[in-house]
Design a protein that fits this description.
With 152 residues, the chain is an all-alpha fold. 76% of the residues lie in helices and 0% in strands.
Length: 152
């Protein structure tokens, strides 16, 4: 991987990640995991841009599986962008329930919620399924906020 330049990585990213996928469980180094997660984000975006949403979901889920418990603190942008792209791929793949499952853990992070609301608002509000999903997410966030007020 180190011997490849940026263009070579972009062109062969799917093949490279398919090789990494076979050994993910053996990977211990946190920096290696972060770098692979970054490559998964690139591959997920590339797949989404070519309308291969299922492939995008595959690579983005692979990247998500590499997150450390404190990824929201240590690597906010990577975590946010991966989950945003994953949610968008699930949405474009016509999987509103998987969209909800992919992003439900993120609704407790207020910084993420504001970014996601702004990012999806125009897209979702122009689509009936999007309105339902957005309403669901708002309900979940409201419920979590009420539960926190009452100490539950």
């Amino acid at each position: 991987m180190q011997s490849r330049n940026e263009l070579q990585l972009q062109e062969g990213i799917f093949e490279l990640l398919n090789l990494f996928a076979q050994g993910l469980q053996l990977m211990d180094d946190k920096d290696e995991k972060r770098k692979i997660a970054e490559l998964c984000l690139i591959a997920g975006r590339k797949a989404k841009d070519s309308t291969s949403y299922s492939l995008g979901v595959r690579f983005l889920n692979m990247g998500k599986s590499l997150f450390q418990p404190n990824s929201w603190v240590d690597h906010f942008d990577l975590t946010y962008n991966t989950l945003l792209e994953l949610g968008e791929c699930e949405y474009l793949n016509d999987n509103p329930i998987r969209l909800y499952q992919a992003t439900r853990v993120t609704t407790v992070n207020p910084k993420w919620w504001m970014k996601i609301k702004i990012a999806f608002q125009e897209t979702w509000l122009s689509d009936p399924v999007g309105v339902v999903v957005m309403t669901l997410l708002v309900s979940v966030v409201t419920f979590i906020g009420v539960m926190k007020l009452f100490g539950a």
